[in-house]
Amino acid sequence: MQAYPLAQITLEQAIAKQFKIVDTIAHFFKDNSIFNLGDVGIHPIFKKPKTTHKVEQVYAALFNACACQMIVGSGTQAIRYALMANVAAGSALFVHNAPIYPTTATTINSMNLTAISCDFHDNDNIKSIIIANPKVKVALLQHSRQKMDDKYDLATVIKVFKEHGIKTIVDDNYVVNKVDKIGIELGADVSTFSCFKMLGPEDIGCVIGDHATIDKIKEFNYSGGSQVQGWQAMEALRQIIYTPVAFAIQSSVVDAVCARLSNGEIPEVSEAIISNSQSKNILVKLSSPIAAQVILKSIEFGATNCPVGAESKYEFMPMFYKLSGTFLANDPSLLEYTIRINPMRAGADTVINILKQAIDLAQKDI
Fold it and tell me: What gap in Å lies between CA 170 and CA 153, rounded to an integer?
């Protein structure tokens, strides 16, 4: 197996990012207002809770963006709204020639959009596809890897599209506060992500971008029942503070586990690599086709095997699960031999011990 994980920030950089978040909050929340849980309903000026508006200002400032809109529906709805604001139903958009994330594919299908594929590793291919489709004005890019051999540089791909007047929307789910810069900081027009994936409240997502996009999304969410309430926004604000350091520690554990497995600590593991199949994790290839059994047995020793929000506040135990849908769609042969491990808040010893015990028990049941 060969994968090309994204470069994640170091612990020192993560600490600096935490300090930046707190410093940014200080510019918008004064007079002990951080202790308020937040208002609800439609404020006459902001047309949403005033607290939510203030949190959105913080998020926009954090990522050097024009504006921000928090939405109900997590990362999936954030992408959906970004597309609705920029792509007419029944038209087309540019995508990478790789399996599209399932919920994003649902949005594309429901909008009756034609996905025009190009190879993000090949700038000339991108340019030729753009020239051949002059009516298409929007590209959707996924920051995390869609297939195992993806290694394109996101900033370069954004630049190519922008040079040809193409608006760029980036799915930054799974990478916020892990990598140095998200899509909008690399030159994209819009970034979308889930706050739930950053230890925040259930069902809350975020769109950061140009005023035209954000203003349209505000129109979509005119009604009171569509609003992110103040208490939800405040929870998202509080929890984002802790994500850079937590994710940096998690990244270092991924490195440590992969190194130990690669050095032969568990004989039944034939190969281990680091990937960004969604989050940064370890892909563990077993010497026999017992991946499903190992995943099943791992929960008897404290692991989890069913994602809640992929790094939500509920997921602190190491997770042993199958590969992402896009990776398996590209290579179904991985299903029987390979498992994905995300240590979450666990240390390397815990992950290794659970894996050893799960393999032993799975082999006994053969």
Answer: 13
Domain 244-364: state its class.
Answer: alpha beta
What does 231-277 look like in DSSP terms, one character per residue? HHHHHHHHHHTTHHHHHHHHHHHHHHHHHHHHTTSSTTEEEEEEE-B
CA distance 320 to 339: 7
> Where are the domains positioned within the chain?
36-241, 244-364
Alpha-carbon span 34 to 32, nearest angstrom? 5
36-241 is classed CATH 3.40.640.10: yes
Give the SS3 label for residue 194: strand
Rg over alpha carbons for the chain, rounded to the nearest Å, is 21
pTM over 0.70: yes
Give how far the C-alpha of residue 300 lies from the chain's centroid of Cα atoms, to the nearest Å.
Answer: 28
144-194 pLDDT per residue, tens? 998 889 999 999 999 999 999 999 999 999 999 999 999 999 999 999 999
Q: Report the SS3 class of residue 141.
A: strand
